[in-house]
Every structure is written in C-alpha cells, then in structure tokens.
Design goal:
By secondary structure, the chain is of the alpha+beta class. It is built from eight helices and 20 strands. The radius of gyration is 19 Å and the shape is globular. The termini are far apart.
C-alpha cells in the first residue's frame, strides 16, 4: 500500500469527523488508527468509565454514501434536508456512517452488544470488531454474553466467522419479538427476505445457547433491556447502571446526529415502521435529555457517545469529551 493510500485510509477510518463538524473533535481522544506489532492497522477504539463498568466502543468500519435525502427526511422536500445539513456545517450531498459495537466489562461478565459486519464486510474495509477488541485487550473467547439490539445485517454479521461462532464461550441474549419476526418463513418473497436468510445463517444456529427476552429483562446485573420498537419489529435498547451512574445504548433508535435528532419526526428509509420509530425516538431521547444521561448510538460519529438536550423541534447532540474518562 502506498503512503498516499495509507493516509487516505487513515483519514476515512478515523479523521473524517473533522470535516463533518469541528465541535466533534473533542470526542476523538483515541480515534486515530495505528499499526500494531504485526504491522496491521487496528481500528479506532475508545474506552469509557461508567461506575465500576469499563465500556469499550469499537469502530467496526465506516461507509460514505451520497444522496442523504434518499435515507433521511424521505417525507420532506429534498431542499429541507440539504438546508439542515448546511446549517450544521455538513456536506449537503454526502453522508458518513459509522458502525460501533460496544463491549462492557462489568468485572464479572464481558458483554458484547452487536457484532458489526463480520467477514462479509471486510472486503469493503469493515468487519473490524475482533481486531478492535484485541487492541483493547480482549480476546473473543473472553466474551461471556452477546446481546443483540436487533437483527439487521450490520449488527449480526459478526456472530459467525468461517462457519463457527466468533465468540466460542458466549451465551446469547436477544429480543423474542425480533427473533420471531426474522425467523418466520413468511418473510420469504417479501422485502425482508434477505434479512430472513441472514438470520437463518447467523442467528438460528445459536438458538440453543440463547435467552429470548422482552421489555425490562435483566441481561446481567446492572444491564436492562428496554423495548424500542419501530426501526425493526423488536428493536431493543439497553440501560447500563453502575455505582449510581447510568448510560443508554440506543442502537438504531436514531442513526444520524443531526438528521435523526434535530428532526426526530422525519422519516428514515431503514425504519420498518416509520411512525412507531419516530414515536420511539422521542420517548427514548426525551428520557435521555430529562435525566441528562450519556448515550452511545450505533451510528453516531465515533466514538458514538454523547448527550442530548431538547432544542427546537428535537434535540441537540453534544459529543462526549472527558465526562466518561474521570
């Protein structure tokens, strides 16, 4: 790889947030890629403290796409989407999407939330979760629980690796409503058919080691599931509580720090029940704003952590700086 290619790859993997918004740079304390002792490039990781819990965010990859209006604000004039992006110092014709699985070390359990793209994403530069975990000091065999927020491909792709479970010693926790929907043969011949096939390949083989849960279920002590349906039929978020401190893993409740949060009622192409998804966004982020809690959103700008405050029609995103370091 040439020096110029290496610089370009590093920029795309870690530094493009500086293009998106200078205020986000406060949250990038550990965002630069670096070579490990094998000369391999490791993905950005960020370790955070929550009481006695250690929380590690791993950048599984990033993706640049065009035509933001085709994904966000699909029920709005295209110019309204462009105007909102411009007001926030963002390109009006390009989006950068990140994928950020989260590992939580409670001291007695190592819980992984979602698994990234897996081997299917590596050709495109994603599927980097395992390398990121190792860079943070964790081997896949140390994971005791894998919890799924939902079963879209960018969340379940890393469950299996080379035909075997990627986390050999883990048990699994997932929403019963979500699993039932995607496993159902009725998905064949519908727009959900590819998702159905992915679940049959990646999730169903793990069913014997799986606990199927609903709203309010305890994953392990200090971690609770909360129903947040809409983005998918059984989408779940998770609340972490440790030593009087709390944090919400919001998964795909909101997928863009401006377009989804400042305009929570705008429709998003990937939300399967758009009205329910908007209702859930307001419920979840009203709670986060009212309780002044930090959150980690799977597609937020790396390190994917921040706060929100109510503002105008929705919420203002405040990226984490050092609040969860001390």
């Amino acid at each position: 790889m040439s020096e110029m290619s290496m610089k370009r790859r590093t920029l795309m993997g870690a530094g493009t947030l500086g293009v998106l918004a200078p205020s986000l740079m406060a949250g990038l304390a550990v965002a630069q890629e670096k070579a490990d002792n094998r000369g391999m490039i490791t993905p950005p990781i960020r370790s955070l403290k929550l009481g006695a819990f250690k929380v590690v965010v791993v950048n599984d990859g990033t993706r640049v796409s065009d035509k933001p209006h085709e994904t966000y604000g699909t029920n709005q004039p295209q110019q309204a989407v462009a105007d909102l992006l411009a007001q926030n110092f963002l390109p009006t014709d390009t989006l950068l999407n990140s994928y950020s699985p989260v590992l939580v070390d409670t001291g007695t359990e190592v819980v992984l939330f979602d698994t990234g793209m897996g081997e299917g994403g590596r050709e495109a530069g994603a599927g980097r979760l395992l390398d990121g975990m190792r860079a943070a000091g964790y081997q896949p065999e140390q994971v005791t629980v894998v919890a799924l927020t939902h079963m879209h491909g960018d969340h379940i792709g890393g469950l299996m690796d080379a035909g075997k479970p990627a986390f050999a010693n883990a048990r699994y926790v997932m929403g019963e409503t979500e699993y039932t929907f995607w496993k159902d043969p009725a998905r064949a011949g519908t727009p959900a058919e590819n998702g159905h096939k992915a679940v049959l390949e990646k999730v169903v083989p793990l069913a014997e080691k799986t606990t199927f849960i609903g709203d309010g279920a305890e994953v392990v002590p200090g971690i609770t599931a909360v129903a947040a349906f809409g983005h998918s039929p059984g989408h779940m978020v998770f609340r972490l509580d440790s030593d009087g401190k709390a944090l919400i893993l919001t998964a795909d409740t909101a997928n863009h720090f401006v377009l989804s949060l400042q305009r929570p009622d705008w429709e998003v192409r990937f939300d399967m029940d758009k009205a329910k998804a908007a209702e859930t966004r307001r419920r979840v982020f009203d709670m986060i704003a009212t309780e002044r809690l930090p959150f980690i959103g799977y597609h937020m700008p790396f390190p994917a952590a921040g706060f929100v405050e109510k503002q105008g029609e929705g919420y203002r995103f405040v990226p984490v700086s050092y609040q969860l370091d001390i």
